[in-house]
Amino acid sequence: MRRSAARNVSLLSIIAVVGTLGAAAPQAPVPPGPPAAAPKSPVAVGYGGAVASVDADASAAGVEVLRKGGNAVDAAVATAAALGVTEPYSAGIGGGGYFVHYDARTRTVRTIDGRETAPRSADSSLFLEDGKPIPFADAVTSGLGVGTPGTPATWQKALDAWGSKPLGQLLKPAERLAREGFVVDETFRSQTAGNEARFADFPASAELFLPGGELPVVGSVMKNPDLARTYEILGRKGIAELYRGELAKDIVDTVRKPPVDPDATRVVRPGDLTTGDLKSYRALHQAPIVTRYRGLGVYGMAPSSSGGTSVAEALNILERTDLSKASETRYLHRLIEASRIAFADRGRWVGDPAFEDVPTKELLSQRFADARGCLVKDDAVLTSPLAPGDPRDPARCSTGGTAAPTTYEGENTTHLTIADKWGNVVAYTLTIEQTGGSGITVPGRGFLLNNELTDFSFAPANPAVHDPNLPGPGKRPRSSISPTIVLDRHDEPVVALGSPGGATIITTVLQSLTGHLDRGLPLVEAIAAPRASQRNAAATEIEPALWNSPVRERLEAIGHVFKQNPEIGAATGVQRLPDGRWLAAAEKERRGGGSAMVVRPAGRR
């Protein structure tokens, strides 16, 4: 979801921001009427902890928890729950995600795989009819594309392992926000407009997002009392209600018999999710992947996400080039080619490790990166689709093998990055996949269901190449989500970041990391820099600032082919400064600009 730069924020944001400034005077009574307007800032520096997300209300919820003594994990749950209110088309309890946590006491990084899973009845023909893939749009708006949600299980697993506050307490800011509402801006209206036809076909979605049968009016207050009640129930009864209780039954009924308007002409295929699928769901504790880059430890998600291995492989390829001294043309050329190679390899080798033999260790090896990196020349461009290498038996500069194109992946999702006063850090990316997910709201519950199963390959991209991302019973679809934490030689945090954007997440994180670590850009400028995204495709996508730059002509002169993408990713990050302060950074303009906050601004301890 996007937000306008001068977004009106709710009373929750105003209270939390005042709290961050240390105001001690009693609050004056708030007059009736719409919440006041407050600008979002893309950067904040100070003490006591930091929160960066796409949304001011969500960041304020996280800061509120930190200010009351909660840690980074507590604040992450509160922030994510608030995003489920204000960014309902990108995230919510009907989806899933990946959670990376740094524990300051033990100086260790651990992760949680909260990816959605396919029904146990699913097989490789899930999206085939008469032996052919169904249209992608039909799969998106269906029960067929809905996976078992992983977000609530992720929250509870993180809190059990590292949190300090109960779930019910952490859901209160979001519950309040859902009940009192937030102010609609132009971007929320335009995102709703993009889903208007879909939402209109589902009475519960129409009632929530198309009040009175019309698009929400800019400046009006959007409330979600059903979601407020749902959060209250989860807080009181626990997440078991979503996996075993009445809420689980409502989810299953909605998937198996999508509640379509009787007058709708849309064909909405049912899914085969069962109460057994929800009961058997588990968010998974996982060891992170880690690679060394410029003497730093870069930690990310292991498969089922391809984000960690792909970012790491590209960094390993780039390790042999001094990017700090490279011209902008050489830097972008090398970045593009490293991304091309990493995507070629992830397409062949990365899937759900419970079903696929994923050579994670070998993909992360410098030996494999060197064998692949020698393909990169400064005066020529590789051709896509590029054939994958064999990480178990890397042949130097080999161009053999059979290529397969990268399958489609949507460009949505949301990300938050948080640090607390003890030095704990969270990088957490969560999603319901498509903007608006499946388009199907669970009646009476106030949240959209995901369409994450459409991240599976409907059929092999190339029948001659094994595709590790075909559907299977209980299988997690491959993701590109790449929450990343970087530690120094003493295992202390340097920077943490992540981004939404489907497959462009990998290239956004890679470019932001190298921009900051190699090119010396301040974190907020590394996030703001114009982006290029190469995903083993014939053309590299670039944003308008690069399209209109002389560097495009210089890159085209050596063979690059480009196409415009108006906006790639929407990163947020936090950085630990040498003097102990935290810096929070978010987008300056993308998705309307992000929201960076700290508990106590610089100058106040």
TrEMBL record:
Signal peptide from the UniProt entry: 1-23
Region listing for Disordered, in residue ranges: 385-409
GO biological process: glutathione biosynthetic process; glutathione catabolic process
Pathway: Sulfur metabolism; glutathione metabolism
Enzyme Commission code(s) on record: 2.3.2.2, 3.4.19.13
GO molecular function: glutathione hydrolase activity; leukotriene C4 gamma-glutamyl transferase activity
Catalytic-site annotation from UniProt: T413
Pfam families according to UniProt: G_glu_transpept
Domain of life: Bacteria
InterPro entries (UniProt xref): GGT_bact (IPR051792), GGT_lsub (IPR043138), GGT_peptidase (IPR000101), GGT_ssub_C (IPR043137), Ntn_hydrolases_N (IPR029055)
SUPFAM superfamilies referenced in this protein's UniProt entry, alphabetically: N-terminal nucleophile aminohydrolases (Ntn hydrolases)
Keyword list, A-Z: Acyltransferase, Glutathione biosynthesis, Hydrolase, Signal, Transferase, Zymogen
Reactions that this protein is recorded to catalyse: glutathione + H2O = L-cysteinylglycine + L-glutamate; an S-substituted glutathione + H2O = an S-substituted L-cysteinylglycine + L-glutamate; an N-terminal (5-L-glutamyl)-[peptide] + an alpha-amino acid = 5-L-glutamyl amino acid + an N-terminal L-alpha-aminoacyl-[peptide]
Keyword ATP-binding attributed: no
Post-translational modification: Cleaved by autocatalysis into a large and a small subunit.
Ranges of biased composition (kind: Polar residues): 399-409
Positions of L-glutamate binding: R115, D455, S479, S480, G502
Protein's UniProt keywords contain Repressor: no
Family per similarity comment: Belongs to the gamma-glutamyltransferase family.
Protein name: Glutathione hydrolase proenzyme
UniProt source species: Streptomyces nitrosporeus
